[in-house]
């Protein structure tokens, strides 16, 4: 954190000029600033926080000095009196809000100033207390305020990650696996090669397709045109892709262009391409090979310059072997393959995405909800079979049901709370079976879950997993084999 070398020059206004330093993303120290015109009160509060909470405490004798100090270094908490010379407490709060300083404010007031304290809270103060303050109550209030500040700082840091180095063409990730995907997109963007995106449902295949299109902007001036191949019947899919002439079939009252024409000089995204029926696969193959086609009921040949990006969550190789999907079409689509890892293989993205979704679903005019640590732990331990889409739905629900802008574990969907990190339901008591038998199963279930969490934390490193668990490396290896755990799913490529 850079500090201002010299105090700013005095301004004619009671409020000094803004000398706020650049934010330091690595700042973790919680520092308190006590603003009080009575020296005895300043000294007693400073010593109380140093001894009881082991915190770094600075003091200022009025609001003007406090603003100068706030411009020189960061503080987590400001405890200020309301009635002071030069710049009073109300002016201090107003200027802190105007500068958008990331600091929590507690105000102190005499017995007759409760109405002023309430006004200060409406201006953004966290809480207030009357003088003389009870030391125990003051310590509890400060601890509570610092915990709230820490949560806000964590969410702010995550949002900075979202807006900064972890964003690629509106795709959010800090996973090395996804960064490899981003690098591949950068390589293929200038080309015309057909791309096949493979991944589980909800992994964001369309987002990646849009990222490819945006990265190709300097080379392809046309639009991004998506179509879900699984959502349309055979006859309508053909018309949607290739268009039709007037009178070519019942209901064709006018000529209509197809998606291929609309995507000329741009990108056509064929979502769920594994659901294209056999009759359409032949026609699709012809267009990919010749880059031309005719509308339904027409004879005019239309030439196109379109990049095709296809996506599927189905195993096309197996479908080819089973005779369900044409082999020649598969190879025509699979020129460049992009494999999207599921969310469970990139757990570092959960907190980043959760912070993004709380911002997306925040109430109008209100700051995004804060995710309590116990709720975040549930998010981090869940396996997310529905991937990013399921996470987004969970956060949307939590934001709607959260009270006072705080997401608790109870605000999350019930299936997240009831299911452990391996995706298995908690064991139920069965009186028809013996207690030792059920205890043995419960122990094994816990042991497997423990190993999976340890392997996730260590990225599949057996030695580090052994150190965490307190077991030998050989014991960990034997247990991994016993529970048939694939270490590769925890490793980064």
TrEMBL record:
GO terms for molecular function: ATP binding; sequence-specific DNA binding. Residues 171-400 form the Sigma-54 factor interaction domain. The modification 4-aspartylphosphate is found at residue 81. It comes from the Bacteria. Keywords: ATP-binding, Nucleotide-binding, Phosphoprotein, Transcription, Transcription regulation. One of its GO terms (biological process) is regulation of DNA-templated transcription. Residues 31-146 form the Response regulatory domain. Residues 1-25 are annotated as: Disordered. Residues 9-22 have a biased composition (Pro residues). InterPro entries: AAA+_ATPase, AAA_lid_NorR, CheY-like_superfamily, Homeodomain-like_sf, HTH_Fis, P-loop_NTPase, Sig_transdc_resp-reg_receiver, Sigma_54_int. SUPFAM superfamilies: CheY-like (SSF52172), Homeodomain-like (SSF46689), P-loop containing nucleoside triphosphate hydrolases (SSF52540). This is Response regulator of zinc sigma-54-dependent two-component system. It comes from Fimbriiglobus ruber.
């Amino acid at each position: 954190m850079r500090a201002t070398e010299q105090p700013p020059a005095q301004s004619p206004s009671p409020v000094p000029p803004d000398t706020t330093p650049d934010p330091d993303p690595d700042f973790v120290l919680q520092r308190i600033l006590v603003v009080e015109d009575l020296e005895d009160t300043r000294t007693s509060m400073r010593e109380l926080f140093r001894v009881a909470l082991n915190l770094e405490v600075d003091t200022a004798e009025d609001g003007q000095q406090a603003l100068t100090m706030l411009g020189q270094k960061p503080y987590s908490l400001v405890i200020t009196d309301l009635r002071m010379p030069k710049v009073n407490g109300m002016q201090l709060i107003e200027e802190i809000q105007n500068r958008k300083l990331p600091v929590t404010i507690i105000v102190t007031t005499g017995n007759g100033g409760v109405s002023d304290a309430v006004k200060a809270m409406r201006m953004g103060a966290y809480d207030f207390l009357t003088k003389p303050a009870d030391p125990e109550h003051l310590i509890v209030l400060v601890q509570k305020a610092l915990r709230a500040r820490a949560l806000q700082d964590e969410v702010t840091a995550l949002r900075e990650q979202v807006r900064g180095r972890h964003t690629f063409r509106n795709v959010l990730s800090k996973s090395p696996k996804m960064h490899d995907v981003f690098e591949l997109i950068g390589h293929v963007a200038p080309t015309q090669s057909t791309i096949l995106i493979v991944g589980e449902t909800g992994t964001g295949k369309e987002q990646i397709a849009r990222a490819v299109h945006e990265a190709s902007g300097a080379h392809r001036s046309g639009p991004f045109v998506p179509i879900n191949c699984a959502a349309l019947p055979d006859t309508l899919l053909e018309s949607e892709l290739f268009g039709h002439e007037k009178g070519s079939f019942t209901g064709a009252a006018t000529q209509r262009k197809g998606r291929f024409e609309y995507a000329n000089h741009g990108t056509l995204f064929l979502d769920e391409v594994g659901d294209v029926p056999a009759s359409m696969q032949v026609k699709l193959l012809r267009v990919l090979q010749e880059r031309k086609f005719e509308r339904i009921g027409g004879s005019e040949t239309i030439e196109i310059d379109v990049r095709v990006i296809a996506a599927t969550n189905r195993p096309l190789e197996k479908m080819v072997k089973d005779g369900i999907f044409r082999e020649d079409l598969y190879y025509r689509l699979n020129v460049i393959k992009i494999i999207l890892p599921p969310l469970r293989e990139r757990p570092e993205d959960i907190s980043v995405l959760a912070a993004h979704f709380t911002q997306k679903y925040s109430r109008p005019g209100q700051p995004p909800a804060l995710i309590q640590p116990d709720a975040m732990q549930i998010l981090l331990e869940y396996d997310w079979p529905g991937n990013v889409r399921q996470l987004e739905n969970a956060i949307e629900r939590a934001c709607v049901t959260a009270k006072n802008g705080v997401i608790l574990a109870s605000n999350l969907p019930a299936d997240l709370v009831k299911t452990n990190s391996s995706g298995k339901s908690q064991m139920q008591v069965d009186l028809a079976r013996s207690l030792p038998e059920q205890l043995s199963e419960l122990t094994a279930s816990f042991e497997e879950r423990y190993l999976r969490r340890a392997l996730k934390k260590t990225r599949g490193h057996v030695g580090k997993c052994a150190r965490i668990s307190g077991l030998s490396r050989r014991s960990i290896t034997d247990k991994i084999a016993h529970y048939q755990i694939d270490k590769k799913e925890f490793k980064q490529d």
